[in-house]
Amino acid sequence: MSEEMSVLALSAAAIAFFHTLLGPDHYLPFIAMARAQGWSLARTATITTLCGAGHILSSVLLGAVGIALGLAASFFEPLDEIRGSLAAWAFMSFGLVYLAWGLRQARKNSPHSHAHPHLDGHVHVHEDGATRLPPWVVFVIFALGPCEPMIPVVMYPAVKGNYLTLLVVTAIFGAVTITSMLAVVLGASLGLKSIPLRSWDRYSHALAGATLLLCGAAMQFLGF
Length: 224
Hints:
By secondary structure, this protein is mainly alpha-helical. The chain is 71% helix and 4% strand. Helix 3 (41-69) packs across helix 6 (150-159) and helix 3 runs antiparallel to helix 7 (163-193).
């Protein structure tokens, strides 16, 4: 590996890591949704990975178009702003609707339940009509979001015509981003599973909606 490739690879890894950690939209929605929707760790990992891949690939495709057309990195700045705003407003809209629905369910003792006495006298309560939101909703919103730090990193070797370095840098950026997302999401999900929060369970959907709403607001108004 050349010195230039090593520097770019290290830069890509560091940027991807800090970009992920400093962007709460990369992990908080998945943590909240996993808790509210009752996802298993395997399902949580799969959805997080797919959303992370969609997030990266959408920027890779735009970068590939830019490379093919000979466009400068500055061309993508207004486009990324539009994509970022779309993703942010989508998060806020979806979060607001989900929050309202979650509060309604909480008022109904979220969700409707009824008890069945067992022979041993134990009463088993189970939920009826619990809503399971399709994961593709989160995937579409997440894929809309731009990955701004990635564009300059991949455009540099592309402009120089060094496509091997371009592939290596892109792969490292994507791998570190997804690995960081998984580490935070799964770590937090495991931690939440070990904490008794039964008294808050009926508010889990409302809390997930509020989380999505706040993440969208942070993206739109705070620049996360």
